[in-house]
Amino acid sequence: MNFIHYDKIDSTNSEALRRLSGSNDIRSLDQTVIAAFEQSAGRGRMQRAFYSPAKSGIYFTAIHAPKNPIQEPAKLTAAAAVAVCRSLKDLLGIEAKIKWVNDIYVNQKKVCGILAEGHLSKEGKIDAAAIGIGINIYQNDFPPEISARAGSVLDDRQGKKSGGDLRVQLASDVCQKLFELLNDEEKNKAALLEYASLSFIIGKEITVIPVIGEQESSYKATVLSIDKEARLHVRLFDGSERALSSGEISIKL
Ligand code: BTN
């Protein structure tokens, strides 16, 4: 693993994609991590900004550039979510849960978001991915628009006890675990089962917000299961069932 650290950057995902676009040999960037203590233009899903202030979190992007093109990008996000939950448990003893598709929750608050973006080859294949992860560690003062659902892994008091290196330690542990999952098919399969078991939305009523660009508007449904491809199976109120592989859901906590 090649760990590159910035104090501040626009976005670690943008930097990873810039490096991929500027390289003649993207394979050499496999297992590179771009990490930062602060982002001036952190990006989230659905073209939202990702709040990335200094001193309170860690923002990092793992580059995955495998030998063969990436066929199932949804599995990258799922593997990343499992890696984050495992690291929080191993390093801090914290039981985190997953809200499909890529949010990590602790004590019913979102403490981490994941954004995987593909890099396309000249032939239009996804030849690499930038898997971006932002974790709120000590933050307890969020902007009003996210303060109801955003939280941190540690409160201030615990944060002070844990020391300054925790941010880097956490990023590097998550990436080590993630690369291990991405490079071993059997471990990856097992991680997808763990992904489903770490999810806290099974049996719950949710609102499905289709991805931008789709014509359909939001609708309510009940979550039935998450399958081994990380697809969400839901039942609508008219009794019909759907398997979702993208989009966003909201849930009342
Ligand atoms: C989301 O919650 O919608 C996903 C947020 C992903 C944020 C991370 S922080 C590191 C990386 N760089 C970015 O600009 N975004 C991702």
Keywords summarizing the entry:
single chain, 253 residues, alpha+beta, seven-stranded mixed beta sheet, five-stranded antiparallel beta sheet, globular, binds biotin
Measured between the Cα atoms of the first and last residue, the distance is 38 Å
Q: Quick check: average pLDDT? A: 92
Report helical residue fraction.
Answer: 25-40%
Strand order of the largest sheet: 1-2-3-7-6-5-4
Question: Over the alpha carbons, how many angstroms does the gyration radius reach?
Answer: 18 Å
Q: Helix and strand string, N-terminal first?
A: EHEEHEEEEHHHEEEEE
Overall number of strands: 12
Structural class: alpha+beta
Q: Provide a count of the helices.
A: 5
- How does the overall form come out from the CA principal axes? globular
Q: Strand percentage, roughly? A: 25-35%
Bound molecules: biotin
Residue ranges: pLDDT <50 for 5 or more in a row? Answer: none
Q: Largest beta sheet, briefly?
A: 7 strands, mixed
Q: Could you describe the 3D structure shown?
A:
This protein is α+β, with helices and mostly antiparallel strands and about 250 residues long. It has five helices and twelve strands. The strands form two sheets. The protein has a seven-stranded mixed beta sheet, sandwiched between helices. Strands 11-10-9-8-12 form a five-stranded antiparallel beta sheet, with no helix packed on it. α2 (about 75-90) packs across α4 and α2 packs across α5. The site of biotin has 20 residues, from α1, β3, β6 and β7.
